[in-house]
Each structure stands twice: as C-alpha cells, then as structure tokens.
Design a protein that fits this description.
Layout lengths: L1 H11 L2 H34 L10 E4 L16 E3 L1 H32 L11 H23 L1
Antiparallel strand pairs: 1-2
Length: 149
C-alpha cells in the first residue's frame, strides 16, 4: 500500500502530468516535422540535385552474388556503406534543430511580453505581477526613507 501512496503523491505533484504533456506534444511535433522534412523540404532538394534520392546513395564494398551464380550455391549479400541514409538523417537533424529554434524563439518573445507587467496587451502571470508590485513598493519606500533623512 505504501508504494501506491507514494505514486499517488508523485502523480498529484504535477511532475507526471508535465512529463505526459511533454511527450504528447513532442509526438505531435514529431509528425509535423516529419511531414515538413519529407513533403516540403526534401522535394525541392531532390529537384536541385536532379532527382537524386539521398537514401539510395552508397559505396558498395562487395557486390551481392545470386545463389544460382555462386560456386557453392550460397548467396552472398551486398556489403555497402550507406552514406545516403546518414546524409538524410543529418538534413533531418538540421531542419528539426532550426525549426525548434524558431519555435522557442517565438515562444520566448511571448513569454517576455507576458512577464512585462507594464505591457497591458498581454495578461501577466500573477506571481510576476505580485513581484513587480513588491519591487515598486520597495522602491517607493526607499525614496521615502531617502527624503526623510
């Protein structure tokens, strides 16, 4: 019974909910990025490179041998370095990194606006508003103390 109680306390604290929301949003964001890379960015890149499919690019170290042609009747698989898959993964990585950078930059702009208590267009979180009011009161009190001395 003790483990269940500890798990319940952990789940209620909000950590578990935050993690779940992050995973769900991350999965949805992954789908968007996947479509962006494969359907929007890769086709123009393919057009610029005369239709070369990066995933098909490889350096063949040993050709495959068909079982009917092989001397012992054994088929030999192709041995190759598939550098095209690496190129495609690197392109995906840079596109995802740049997209995340843009999203974070966009979100930080809104966060900065929301944390500015003087900006009346955006609702300021209560804790930021209270701290700002406290700071203003301390400044006012310091001015009064300076004027009285």
């Amino acid at each position: 019974m003790g483990i269940f109680k500890e798990f319940k306390e952990f789940a209620i604290k909000g950590n578990m909910v935050d993690i779940a929301v992050g995973v769900i949003v991350g999965a949805a964001f992954n789908k968007v990025i996947d479509v962006l890379v494969k359907q929007v960015i890769t086709p123009p890149l393919s057009l610029m490179t005369d239709g070369i499919q990066f995933s098909d690019r490889k350096i063949v170290l040993r050709d495959a041998i068909d079982a009917s042609v092989a001397s012992g009747g054994e088929a030999v698989e192709e041995v190759a370095i598939n550098y095209g898959a690496l190129l495609e993964a690197l392109i995906d990585f840079f596109i995802i990194g740049f997209t995340i950078f843009l999203v974070v930059k966009f979100m930080n702009r809104f966060r900065a606006q929301a944390q500015d208590p003087k900006n009346k267009k955006v609702t300021t979180p209560k804790d930021i508003e209270l701290l700002s009011n406290l700071t203003d009161l301390v400044k006012e009190q310091n001015e009064l103390l300076k004027n009285n001395n």
